[in-house]
Structure formats: structure tokens, C-alpha cells
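Quick one:
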Amino acid sequence: MEAAVMQCVWATPEPQSVRQVQAQISTERSFAYTTVMTVMDNLHSKGLLARVRNGRAYLYSPKQTREEYTASILGDVLADGGDRRGVLMHFVDRLDEDALASLRQVLDDTPREDGSRS
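Output:
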């Protein structure tokens, strides 16, 4: 459910209330207001959501972009995956041609520690 909440918060540029998020994510499966509130509070505690008080409720917004969040998850996977090179090789083997081309472009555009390009 955390992923569904984050997807909902990323999809809207303005801060969201628990009620708004609940309405969005409950279109396919009904979630109780208190369940969504608990999940959003947990995401706030984890540092993934910012919140500001609006009357008696909070409005939540993401503290990271979807890309930053995904990169942090990939970093965690690499840190916990054992053989980093092996994990990366299996990951690259599953990429389609467009994703491989994007990865090559990013690597070509990323400066090395000595300031030169790849």
C-alpha cells in the first residue's frame, strides 16, 4: 500500500490530505481511512512525505521525486545484494533496448572522478 500512496502523492502537484489519497487508491480496493492515515504517517516518519497542518488535518507532499526514491531503492538493493557486479549484470540483462540506450547515454554523460567523460 505504501507504493500506491506514493504513486498518488506523486501524481498530484499540490499537497494531498489522507481523505484525498484514500479516495484515489480505493478505486480498485477499499481501504479504511485509518489504514491510509497510518501508512501516510509511517511514510512521514521514514522521511518520504512532508506534512503541514491544515485545520485539524495534515496535507502531505513527497520529499523526493519518484526518480530519487527509485534510485534510493536500487541503492539499497545493491548494498544488500551480495555480489554488486553480479546484481548489476542480471539487472542489465533484463533491460530492453531503449533502457540500455538510456543507460549508455547516462554513463557517457556522467563525469568521472578526474573530471573527464566516460
